[in-house]
Specification:
By secondary structure, the chain is mainly alpha-helical. The protein has 2 domains: about 70-240; about 245-385, no CATH class. About 65% of the residues lie in helices and about 0% in strands. The protein has 19 helices and no strands. It has helices spanning about 1-10, 15-30, 50-85, 90-95, 100-110, 130-140, 145-150, 165-175, 180-195, 205-225, 230-240, 245-260, 265-275, 280-285, 290-315, 330-340, 345, 350-365, 370-385. The longest helix is centred in the N-terminal third of the chain and has 38 residues, at about 50-85. The protein starts with a helix and ends with a helix. Residues about 5-15, about 15-30, about 95-100 and about 110-120 have low confidence and may be disordered.
Length: about 375
């Protein structure tokens, strides 16, 4: 009985692992051939249309990022420029003195006079700096040295070394030296901004301004052919400032004469006056350059505002608008609007047609829902139409 049970148990026992492998191997090889190893994707690739959409979306995001970067750089340049010009001319002269007084003070120091405070906070030079040293400082991005040259050897910033002026040389190096270019154009602006009206008649000043304008015009033409024309409007602004207030007074007077004629086109003439400062190459750009067109429109609109106010102010015995806010966004318009509100009773005595000109300027020139070019078009749509 026991032996029979043992035999039955042995017959029911599971096969050994080796026996099982041999059986399964033989059965596998007999039923299906062995396939070579091959990598597979756990998930299928998205369709080509989805890839195209994703690629377009990523391209738009990158374009938006680059646009925002350029916008930030523009805002930085404008902020630096605005910071340099934010203080009124009178306040700047009171705080730092004028260029004429500075030159006179230095002459007195050389003669053994009492030493006064320096022009700027930088340290002077033991010996006069050389042009090649300035260009080395530009190469090395040595802002401190360039500022010392600006404060103590300004004329060196206008001298050509080899074939290029410093501001053109710095702009050719590339975007990494943009802050150097901003510093240089700011130095030119500061020089012009600190001149007294009588300084513009002096031979020394005329020579410096002639070199300054040559620098700016070359910088404008170079920027047209570069990938970063962000400072074109700044160059143009300093170029106009270099003419002094005499240009503004002359332009306002001529526009005042045109405003008296109901069949004239004063807005178009104001725009033409500003464009005369553009170089030939800049005027030849098809469609214009965006930032330059913005500045031209801003300057032309301010000339019309100042001329319109001057037209009425002469009749009722009021002062003309100041010139230090010229072509600085809405500042001239704000002064104009405040002056109108302050002298309402006197303005009623003016010629009815002249009052209509003021109302047109106030209604359209300050419409912040539109850009400056749109505001200029609206003003021109009324003032440049025959009556």
């Amino acid at each position: 009985m026991t032996s029979n049970y043992s035999q039955a148990a042995q017959g029911l026992a599971p096969p050994s692992p080796g026996h099982r492998r041999s059986v399964s191997s033989s059965s596998f090889s007999s039923t299906s051939p062995r396939l070579p190893p091959c990598p597979i994707l756990l998930h299928p690739l998205p369709p080509a249309s989805s890839l195209a959409k994703e690629s377009a979306a990523q391209s738009e995001l990158e374009l938006d990022r680059q646009t925002r970067q350029l916008h930030r750089e523009k805002e930085l340049a404008e902020a630096l420029q605005d910071q340099a010009w934010s203080i009124e001319r009178a306040a700047v002269r009171e705080e730092q003195g004028t260029w004429t007084k500075t030159l006179q003070r230095r002459k007195n120091e050389k003669k053994g006079g009492v030493e006064d405070e320096q022009w700027g906070d930088t340290k002077g030079f033991v010996r006069p700096p050389q042009a090649y040293e300035l260009y080395q400082a530009i190469d090395k991005h040595d802002i401190d040295y360039i500022m010392r040259v600006r404060d103590h050897a300004f004329s060196l910033l206008l001298q050509k070394n080899g074939a290029e002026f410093p501001i053109v040389y710095a702009s050719r190096i590339g975007a990494g030296h943009r802050d150097v270019v901003i510093l240089l154009v700011g130095a030119l602006s500061r020089y012009v901004n600190h001149l007294e009206p009588e300084d513009f008649d002096k031979k020394e000043t005329k020579d410096i301004l002639k070199a300054l304008r040559a620098n700016l015009k070359l910088a404008i033409d170079h920027s047209l052919h570069s990938s970063s024309p962000h400072l074109l409007s700044s160059y143009l602004q300093v170029l106009i400032m270099s003419e002094g207030d005499s240009f503004l007074h002359r332009a306002v007077y001529e526009l005042t004469l045109l405003l008296r004629d109901p069949h004239s086109r004063p807005v178009l003439e104001a725009e033409t006056m500003v464009r005369r400062f553009c170089t030939k190459e800049l005027r030849g750009v098809a469609g214009g350059v965006g930032e330059v067109e913005e500045y031209v429109a801003n300057a032309a609109l301010d000339l019309v505002i100042m001329a319109g106010w001057s037209l009425v102010a002469g009749q009722v015995g009021l002062d003309n608008l100041p010139t230090h806010t010229f072509a600085r966004d809405l500042r001239t318009y704000q002064l104009f609007s405040e002056a109108m509100d302050e002298h309402v009773s006197k303005l009623h005595k003016a010629n009815p047609r002249y009052r209509k000109i003021l109302r047109t300027i106030k209604d359209f020139a300050g419409d912040t829902r539109k850009g400056v070019r749109g505001r200029l078009r609206d003003v021109a749509g009324v003032l440049d139409q025959d009556e």
